Fold these 2 entries.
Entry 1:
Amino acid sequence: MDKRAFQFSPVQRYLDRIHEELLDLNDGAVADYIPELTRADPSWLGIAMVTVDGHVYQVGDSRQSFTIQSISKAITYGLALEDRGLDQVLGKVGVEPSGEAFNSISLEPGTGRPMNPMINAGAIATTGLIESKPDAPPMQRILEAFGRYTGRPMQIDETVYRSESDTGHRNRAIAHLLLGYGILDRTPEEVVDLYFRQCSILVTARDLAMIGACLANNGVNPVTGVVALQSRYVEKVLSVMSTCGMYDFSGAWIFNVGMPAKSGVGGGITAVLPGQFGLGVFSPRLDAKGNSVRGIEACKRLSKDFSLHLFHVARSTSATVMRQVYNCAKRTSRRRRSAAELAVLAEQGHRIRVYELQGELLFGSAESVGVEILSELARVDYLVIDLKRVIGMDQASILVLSELCMRIADQGKRLFFTDSKNLYRFRKHLQGNAYRGQEPGPLHFEDTDHAVEWCENQLIAQTDSTGADTSVADLNHQYLCAAMTHEELESLRHAGREREFKTGERIFDAGDRAESMFFILSGEVEVWIDTGAGQPLSHHLRLSSLGPGMVFGEVALVNEKRRTANVSAAMDTRCLELRFDAIPDALLVKMLMSMASHFANKIERDTQLIQQLA
Amino acid sequence: MDKRAFQFSPVQRYLDRIHEELLDLNDGAVADYIPELTRADPSWLGIAMVTVDGHVYQVGDSRQSFTIQSISKAITYGLALEDRGLDQVLGKVGVEPSGEAFNSISLEPGTGRPMNPMINAGAIATTGLIESKPDAPPMQRILEAFGRYTGRPMQIDETVYRSESDTGHRNRAIAHLLLGYGILDRTPEEVVDLYFRQCSILVTARDLAMIGACLANNGVNPVTGVVALQSRYVEKVLSVMSTCGMYDFSGAWIFNVGMPAKSGVGGGITAVLPGQFGLGVFSPRLDAKGNSVRGIEACKRLSKDFSLHLFHVARSTSATVMRQVYNCAKRTSRRRRSAAELAVLAEQGHRIRVYELQGELLFGSAESVGVEILSELARVDYLVIDLKRVIGMDQASILVLSELCMRIADQGKRLFFTDSKNLYRFRKHLQGNAYRGQEPGPLHFEDTDHAVEWCENQLIAQTDSTGADTSVADLNHQYLCAAMTHEELESLRHAGREREFKTGERIFDAGDRAESMFFILSGEVEVWIDTGAGQPLSHHLRLSSLGPGMVFGEVALVNEKRRTANVSAAMDTRCLELRFDAIPDALLVKMLMSMASHFANKIERDTQLIQQLA
């Protein structure tokens, strides 16, 4: 992507502007509770934003390292949830705001359970829950977890760590209290040491924005694609950030700023707008509550200037995910059909309906799509739901759509999903559940074209009188010969030459000189192109398949003198090859009339389709 | 819409199931703090859900009336914000969770400001802020506000009101304390009376779901379309519901259930999943904290079974809102062009690019669309952003897109928005801002076709050598005559008849017998259809406009024998009319060859376009 896109972006220019404005804000003081932190340059200011698309914006000292401090609490909490599960973690640490300062001890009377994981007591208890694996001690696992969020290997600032360790008497006291209540399984020394190291991990404002972006993006790092946190725990981490992340002004923070956030005394703040972006700000001057003064101000301005708020989300309706709906009376599959087959599809094709979805399916949009489908169900027998452009499905939408599958099967209708290969959980769920009551047969197709062709074949097979699927057809089935008398057909037959091709045999190649057309008498041919070098997977792209009663190569009569695609016999096939220069003059006008008429009708259908699509 | 769609809906069946299961849950007791409430039938259970699409699901006693009680606090808070603005309301009532029970007095030390509007003290202070208008006293205004949410006129249960009033000593005490602190402007008697009446408003579970749906739908009632609450205050009401709505277990509620909610001692609960739905549950048995036992359980099950959570939102990226992108080398406007003009567009059309958006634009998606546009900007001179399928734009996306306008104007490119008529705030903002630096000329077009035609005209006008825009063309410019010699053209001219039409004159009508074709020699004609009765607005739908060098009516030579559209002279126009039966045999084959070839090329382009669109 063109780098200038970001440079000229409205977002970059906005961040540049608030960076410049905030340089004038000099309130607050650098943290001094441990000596090492006082060495920070109070003038540092870095701002970064990373969107869920993985676009990175940064300005100022966004690459300056500093220690993560309390922001680590949110990440470690997520790792503890992954290690121990919800119940075990909730048994050790609560989720209620304490209404008190970050270093308050706030243990629940009786159980000694810290009120929440964002205060020191809760964070120490959380760190104590991180598992040790045979080949990965807890600290290594913590560093690796942080690295999944930031997308780079993480390191500890050893000087800050020693400084924390030398002065962390209150945290040691907390750990001993927790041990006394049975909250810790390990020695207080061990847990507190881990906690000090975790707080001393070096990050940049860019890292903080990337951490926020992972949480905004359902747990997936939007740049590397790595899962930083299992999606089911993302909402839990964001919940405690929203109710407890900003200590004793969490209510006002959500009310005014409306972004779950976490700050650290190193001067960093990570803020998250779920579904949209992560914001990282670094400026070492802190207010009395230990939050970065400029960091808070940056979050406030961004929220105010753009009216951003976590409760402002995209409505989840069919209008947001339904890309288009069409039926197959007007738009058939790419398979070329005989006139008789086309007549069946023109009359019956409305019984096949295709729904193209796009974007992210949630409960609301899945429900809305379901209603739209069910409300038309009486008029439809085959339904194809195209998921090619769907970028995600949550648990609710999976349940709603798989229930829908069963409702549709109950009604004796067939439903297919296409292009669902990236929606692994959905496919798995369907395999387990939605098949019940469904007739045997495919439920998924690679693409919509194949699914529609399958449905069309059913419709055609159900219509006995069409003469479709016969394995032989005479010239009088050919649209080009529609207006000819028996004698004219005979003279045409004599002008041509019968040819036979074995399965797989090439009839002609793209680029060949084109001097004849082929009427198919029996068998089947495939028209295809080679998608060429550089695309290792799909060399062979089928454009159409043709059967008895159809013609190919005829356009060259009026147009290009070279073949534009390859044609092969898909089974043993018999054709009448007719050289253009052998067509009797008297028949040429009739064939041209038929051809132009046929094309005009095709153009009319295509035009309707294009207007429908566009 | 087919009613059965809802009946068979997975959502209806799910609600039916939890309704049945919850009937077995008989914990808790009907409220007895006022005598009137004890008359409720403890077995009542009504559940309703209303989606942001306005789909209504209900089961059980969903139409049973009961008094709204504390759920009214959220609605009145919204009305107070509209009446007084944010600052004035925040001066009287805070937004921090109190961590205490609903009837706690919880006033801020010193100021006497109630901690939040969801406890009684805060709610009484809030009710005291509702303005009295000359023709609408506060109670009438409150009833009208509630009615905007529910979509029906609201009434008070007079018996419950009197019972509340007779026993509400604690609330009177609170009001007097508030008066003492200067929080109230009116007499405590007056304010408490309003408060008792507000709590005695009769609602059903369906009403509660509708209230929730308004909050989920950015303040707009999804069934009536009425604005229940100005959108900028919706996030404020949801914020206090999320941090304070469930009293002293708000932290756990957000963590576990993840839906802002409010309960009342009448047995009702309203829960909101922003962007998705409102849920209303009614069951009179309460737990010790005054919340409906079955109501809480219904919210919990729904949240758990579908993994619903307010932090689980659709990602806001270009993948969710970009419906398609195309350039006009392959897909031109509906205006029919001469061969010379088409050649210009084939070569230069890539300089016009159309972006079709759909769904709801938020900060994230607007940013992402902006990056996509800017990254290709060097290759494009005209940009058309089609907003026809956009159902909403928030403030952030308006700012980002209007900044984008200016960036594009800075680069000397032209940007147009089409079909933006429903996006009033966006248009207004652009008028005020984005025009700066933009060349004079249109910024909005009614539809994309007209915008693209405008851009095409610019491209064609810039290309001098094309011979386009000449006002006269001879037969040799006609594609049907491309292969003819001078002598053949002369014989064709003699076979035809020159005709002149005045501006506005009808050349033929749809349905007329078709026995000739018309070569345009000068002027311009319009092909159009009447969209017919029942559509009062757009009777005249232009299909195309044609100029010198083009032909119309020619398809009838090979096809229908009736006209399929009307053709009128758009200006004074001269044509050569050629009767089909007058075409010399020798020329017929040439014309049919040209026609079939032309159609074949058109089909190829259309096929490419369809594949691109599909």
Entry 2:
Amino acid sequence: MNRGKVLELLGADWTRMTELIRSALVSDVPLANEINDGILAHPGKLLRPMISLLLARCCGALTPAGIRYAAAAELLHNATLIHDDVADDSSQRRGMPTLRSLVGPRAAVLVGDYWLARAVELMMGEGDDPQALRLLSALLVKMAEGEILQLQKAESCDTDEADYLRIISCKTASLFAFTGETAARSAAAPQPLAEAARAYAEAFGMAFQIRDDILDYCGEDSGKPVGQDLAERKITLPLIGALRGSDREADIRARVHGIPAHPEDRAYVRDFVLEHGGIAYARERLEEYVGEALRALEALPDTPERESLAEIARYNSFRNV
Amino acid sequence: MNRGKVLELLGADWTRMTELIRSALVSDVPLANEINDGILAHPGKLLRPMISLLLARCCGALTPAGIRYAAAAELLHNATLIHDDVADDSSQRRGMPTLRSLVGPRAAVLVGDYWLARAVELMMGEGDDPQALRLLSALLVKMAEGEILQLQKAESCDTDEADYLRIISCKTASLFAFTGETAARSAAAPQPLAEAARAYAEAFGMAFQIRDDILDYCGEDSGKPVGQDLAERKITLPLIGALRGSDREADIRARVHGIPAHPEDRAYVRDFVLEHGGIAYARERLEEYVGEALRALEALPDTPERESLAEIARYNSFRNV
């Protein structure tokens, strides 16, 4: 993906959005500002607001509400990352120390709450749209439920494909779908465009998480740590694919369950996945969601923004970060 | 406080509120229900919804929105308790094991997020009041900022009375003030009643936190663990009172700062507080807030509900739990 080209296309609206993220976070409490500045110094890909702004334009108009909703999506995303890192006791993410490891779990829980609070505030700007707020509250419930379901399944280790799809739909795709829905609402898009925006974003979100889960098995070339999911007993699509029709299913699931006591079994299970077509299976499903995302775009006007969204979806199949 | 009498007065509305808390939390995810049932089995005092319902009645009418707002206040309160226990790594609260110690920090962070999400959802029922939602988003920001400020001050150990009042206003009184404001809005109360409801709840919230902070110095008779605040280097009103005009201020503050390395200094600082009028000073300020709360009630109609609110405020001065 040519990120520079997308940012050029978004131009001043991109600047407005990133400045809004910064200004929305400003606090009267110096420690909050200090921690937030540290987080903002490494802003990540900002993929959610990027998609949000592009979809709002495709839906007719990028309004001040559209910029607020895009910024809110990024704050929500970061709030969940911060809490996940506390929950997982993670010391690194994307090769950088996590907030938890920098400031301790205590400040990190509270800063996550702070980012969430500011996101809710951003959703409630002037002339709030009650429907957007309802989408927000449903999203918050869904994301928390997805994470709890994932935790439950890490205990039972009986995750099947339907469970997996439900988990990633709740924990990841729901926030993308939310950006699509709110972007369309901010542009007062007619129903078919709004539906297309939501469908694109949701399918992309599924593909995005599947790509992440593939990289957890074979992303070592990009310097990404691999095997993190198995360490946490998360059974993801590559393993589910490798288990299809296998007579070793009971043994493999039992080994995943025992990983905390026998960490050496991570390599055993990983080899099983790589040798039994797990990656190929996950790639197939990934491509189905990419195809779904691209088909949804056909209902949107043929503009450079739509082309950028298509490029983002296609790029996801090959990204290594 | 005669709690039974208050509950009798609230009657079916109390039952509706507690049932709403239970039904609002129901999830499709079995683990979430299991954990929530565990929390609900020990519901605590439910002080915030109790005050909320009483105030709504004093303001004219207890509507379905009033019941929703009361339930939401309790969910918000519990969400912050759950996150605070993760942040503080606490294993006990009110003599019971914390959620963190029962299910681990991971599930506890996520369950806190879930309760918060359900609270936001409850605030957005039918015919939502945009102003109530704006109060909610401001509240979330304020509570998170209060906790972060408290953390900042635990590092610098230079908390003065103004800092202390700001911290407890943000972290505790703001949620009580919110119950007063939203209760009044739910009853469509005229401005003077709404202002009285808010003023009562806010002043009560200040008094409530001061009482908690006094009990942390001298609540051992009730089996409450004492000295927790000093262990976390929280400088609260009893210590601030004892330091007034003292020539030992620099030494005492330095000792508080060194408590993680020298836990034995907790007893030293505590003795200093008990011997230098710290408790008496905090009690005086507590009584000022109780007086403020009682004066605010005078603007409300003279009903059994108002009498219950007065009793709750007076009882707070002497409570040991």
